[in-house]
From TrEMBL:
<protein>
    <submittedName>
        <fullName>Uncharacterized protein</fullName>
    </submittedName>
</protein>
<feature type="signal peptide">
    <location>
        <begin position="1"/>
        <end position="23"/>
    </location>
</feature>
<keyword id="KW-0732">Signal</keyword>
<dbReference type="InterPro" id="IPR013320">
    <property type="entry name" value="ConA-like_dom_sf"/>
</dbReference>
<dbReference type="Pfam" id="PF00262">
    <property type="entry name" value="Calreticulin"/>
</dbReference>
<dbReference type="GO" id="GO:0005509">
    <property type="term" value="F:calcium ion binding"/>
</dbReference>
<keyword id="KW-0143">Chaperone</keyword>
<dbReference type="InterPro" id="IPR001580">
    <property type="entry name" value="Calret/calnex"/>
</dbReference>
<dbReference type="GO" id="GO:0005783">
    <property type="term" value="C:endoplasmic reticulum"/>
</dbReference>
<dbReference type="GO" id="GO:0051082">
    <property type="term" value="F:unfolded protein binding"/>
</dbReference>
<keyword id="KW-0256">Endoplasmic reticulum</keyword>
<comment type="similarity">
    <text>Belongs to the calreticulin family.</text>
</comment>
<dbReference type="InterPro" id="IPR018124">
    <property type="entry name" value="Calret/calnex_CS"/>
</dbReference>
<dbReference type="GO" id="GO:0006457">
    <property type="term" value="P:protein folding"/>
</dbReference>
Length: 139
């Protein structure tokens, strides 16, 4: 009987941890695992400037899928519209992504742009260098 009482604090700790995970998951506005086709869920820029073709594939040495650029020295642009608009003034906003540069990065950059809502006037298929709200760069 005494042994079961010692388990209660541990079980409560585990229950709190699970509750925290579930509670934070409800706040996720967008998550893309790329575990199935991304066509129809993502919008490709039709600007001549962006001629690269995205591929859904496993990266070398990994079992998970992701977007891969199919050719070197091309420019790529892809847009994902969120189902709802959020404000950076409404509290904490976490923007997280992962990049795997399989062959390094030569003479260029990789950019992630967080765009304003379409009411501002931009069109996803006409995505270019000008319509971003936040701009993340890694080189």
């Amino acid at each position: 009987m005494e042994r079961s009482w010692k388990l209660i604090p541990q079980l409560l700790l585990i229950a709190c941890f699970v509750f925290q995970i579930c509670a934070s998951y409800d706040d996720v506005m967008f998550y893309e695992p790329f575990d199935e086709s991304f066509e129809g869920k993502w919008i490709f820029s039709e600007k001549d400037y962006y001629q690269g073709v995205w591929k859904l594939s496993k990266s070398e040495g990994h079992d998970d899928y992701g977007l891969l650029v199919s050719e070197k020295a091309k420019r790529y642009a892809i847009v994902k519209e969120l189902d709802s608009v959020f404000s950076l003034n409404d509290g904490t906003v976490v923007l997280q992504f992962e990049v795997r540069l399989q062959n390094g990065l030569e003479c260029g950059g990789a950019y992630l742009k967080y765009l304003r809502p379409q009411e501002v006037g931009w069109k996803p298929k006409e995505f270019d260098n000008e319509s971003y709200l936040l701009h993340n760069v890694w080189t």
